[in-house]
Amino acid sequence: MDTPIVSCQCGAKMRVPAQAVGRAIRCPKCKSRIDVPDPATAVPIATQAIDLSDASECPICQTKIAPGEPTKCCQKCEQLHHLDCWDEVGGCSTYGCENAPAPEEEKAAQTPLSAWGDTKKCPACGEMIKAIAVRCRYCQTEFDSVDPLSVADLRRQAGKQAKTDSSKQVIVGIFVLSMVGCLAPVMLAISLAYVLRNRETLAKAGPLFVIMGWIAVALSGVYSLLMAFFLLIGG
User: Which UniProt keywords apply (predicted)?
Assistant: First the structure.
């Protein structure tokens, strides 16, 4: 025997399981209480005639079905729909009906793809490494980005790193020479020109080297002023 179909005051209809007969359930649409009648005493839906003259209401769009409008009657639960509404939802609107469209499964959250997928090829040694790796575990080559790199990109990266390392050495040398008083006028010009010209490179080298560069400029300037002061006094 087919399980009974009950209607809610909100207009929703649903087929209920056999164990719910004679009990109360909650409407899945409006959460109202619905008393499920016993099929033995209820009038079978299959025997109820569908009369368009009563201007039935489409349960999908919640509007009256006018005489002459294209309709679709569910063969399982006898629920009447607008034909367009039936096609739009892909089946019957009665909850639990066999002709009701299957609920769409929630799409799993997509894992953000990295630049080269799950693995990537090291442009230096050719070994496969993790896509998010910024250093090859085989050849220990470090990358400045997880984005795809070619051999030419790796060469440019190596050139930038070599320039940064060279700037570190130059700044250390300038800093040491700036503490030699007799070289102050010369070191003032050299240190000031170098720091101003290579500000971006020094910034990549780190704040320590930027500070060392400006300290060298300051020391050379102070020593130059002291030398000029003593020369004026001696003259």
Answer: Membrane, Transmembrane, Transmembrane helix
CA 54 to mean position of chain CA atoms: 52
Q: Rounded to an integer, what distance in angstroms lies between the CA atom of residue 74 and that of residue 3?
A: 16
pLDDT tens digit string along 21-55?
777 777 777 777 777 776 665 544 443 444 444 45
Which is nearest to 186 in space by CA: 158, 224, 212, 155?
224
Where does CATH 2.30.30 sit in the chain?
112-149
Closest CA to 5 of 92, 78, 107: 78
- Count Cβ atoms below 10 Å from residue 161 Cβ, excluding itself: 13
| Pairing state between β 80-82 and 71-73 | antiparallel
Domain 112-149 carries which CATH code? 2.30.30
Q: How many CA atoms lie within 13 A of 97 on its CB side?
A: 23
Residue 95: strand pairing partners: 14
Contact 79, 97 (CB under 8 A): yes
The answer to whether 202 touches 209, Cβ cutoff 8 Å, is yes
Instruction: Write the pLDDT tens digit of every residue in 63-100.
Output: 888 877 888 888 888 888 888 888 888 888 887 788 88
CB atoms < 10 A from the CB of 40, how many? 8
